[in-house]
Design brief:
Number of helices: 7
Structural class: mainly alpha
Radius of gyration: 20 Å
Shape: globular
Amino acid sequence: MNYDSQVPLASLYAVFFRLGLLSFGGGISAWVHREIVAVRRWVTEEEFMAGYALGQILPGVNSTNLTIYIGQRLRGAIGAAVALAGLLSGPFVAVIAAGVAYRYLFEIPGFEAAMAGVAAVAVGMLGRLGLVFVRRLPWRPAPVAVMAATFVAVGVLNWPLAAVVLMLAPISVAAAWPRPAGNA
């Protein structure tokens, strides 16, 4: 792939810098989807979903994995490094500044409520991203059953996530495993 005619590195850095600053409270995958797929159309919905899925299964932070995937997809190794630097440099400076000013921040009227609002928006954006994925993927009962079982086990019964994953992962893999077409 010829990366020279693609997205400028400065634009890639700027977008991920802004995304890193706006993602306080989580929900960055939804922000990335909005900016990279819906607004700028730098990658397709299918490419984004592939990167999102890959970011979920690789070790490390999902949003960081997704950022590296998109940067690499757009501009190769240098794009991955630039996108990651953009994503991390804004929050790095903001966290250092917040650490210095921490004791003064909570004295600002409404600051705590504003942070709760930012977290609520992040949850809503993740919910929206989930709906986008649900509409794009074919409906099959096995993945829905695994998802529901995970929700009930972890969210309702408060079972340990590691035990639930160890129990449901083989079922999920077996349900997704390609089967040869039969002549029946």
